[in-house]
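Review form for a predicted model. The reviewer records the input and the model, then writes brief findings.
Reviewer: anonymous (R2)
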Amino acid sequence: MYCRHRRLIISPLRRAIATRSCFSTLENNADPICELASSTLRYGPTSTSEVGQDLAYMNAKRILLFVDPYIAAMDPFHNVVSSIEKHVPAGHFLDIYDKIRVEPNNESFKHAIEFMSEKTRNHGPYDAVIALGGGSTIDTAKAANLYTCYPPDDFYDYVNPPLGKGLPVPGPIVPLIAIPTTSGIVDPDNTKTMSPPVAKYSGIDVLCHAIESYTAIPYTSRASGRPISPILRPAYQGSNPISDIWALHALRDCSQYLPRIVNNPLEDSEARAKMCLAASTAGMGFGNAGVHLCHGMSYAVASQVKQYWVDGYPQLNDIVVGDVGNDHGLVPHGLSVVINAPSVFKFTGSNLDENDPIQKRSVDRHVECAIILANARLQRRGDNVTTIGQEVTSEKAMRDKPGDALANELLELMNDLEIPIGLRSLGYSEADVEELAKGTLPQHRVTKLSPRQPVELEELTALFKDAL
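Model under review:
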């Protein structure tokens, strides 16, 4: 239970019972198997300086570096190039692609793919690819690598249904070192120059990764069931005992250290280190469990934005990618995710019957996430006068309305971080709801992992209306 004061006295939830209940409800075609797919992860300050040694060990002669034009003017880029020059033997070739679009689209992906493909046709295949930067850079590098190595008949062949065929990667691709990412070199020194808004929205994305993967449908309840071959098992399997460990670690650290890094990203080295590690562990969690509605709804929000832009993010009007300029509005990815989160968790955590093992599991997990956020909130606010006499919701009350409990704690954090509340703050209105819902409908890869089903046009319309 909770006491009125800052210290929480609670007993841990019995995860073993929840896990057993998953297996006890297996249906004929349920998938009893979960797996962890993970690449090498290196973490620590100055780890970027080792990339040249990695490339030397790989005997890499032809190297392609993806970097956005702003990172290219900063220390992380110079550290990468310096390490390559120092450690990779003479005679190597380093090509640089810096036409990265913030929030990539089809045109920007195709531009990067053509760059790498043309270089490959003219000079032979690359031995290694490096992606230095955020998700936009890393996703662009991954797409260019795959489509250059195995050009599809149709651009959407590798995209998940219903938009594409969801074809598996046919074979090995060029080794990719991502800095930073969950499988690569994670160096807290590379985040020193983040502006507070970038720290805020990249960090809140990490927090949502953790909560969504932990509250996703159990892997044993996944609608697609057991695949006919292990290679066809989806990367996003549903919550599972392996991913749960990573998700909870990330949620605890993120809820504690995100407000600190937003306040002082340059000087608070502990917060930078903890958030880099949280980003990595969250990635290992959601990379195997998946995310669900917060991310599923975010893509429509980000792609349909009109004029909104966040201070602290670079205006890219002077950079042209192919025939498409970057003079678009921008909702940072983390903002497009979290702005829907309170409505999502009110939905996924409501109308649950604790007599049903799977639904009880969902109650447990929504409450557990709310408790972690509440603990961090009380610790964060400390003896601040605004918390004196404040009544804290009891665990019993949270269990009565688990969705509201989690949504309310997210709103508390959003308020503390000065994150906009509601889609109206981004320029959306009731007139946009239908298109937002239609834009989300094809995101089956994630919407089908929602712990509450069905999630079709009617449910998505209601969610976006509530998120206004």
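Findings: The first strand starts at residue 42 and ends at 43.
Further findings: Residues 1-25, 322-326, 383-389 have pLDDT under 50 and may be disordered.
Recommendation: see findings above.
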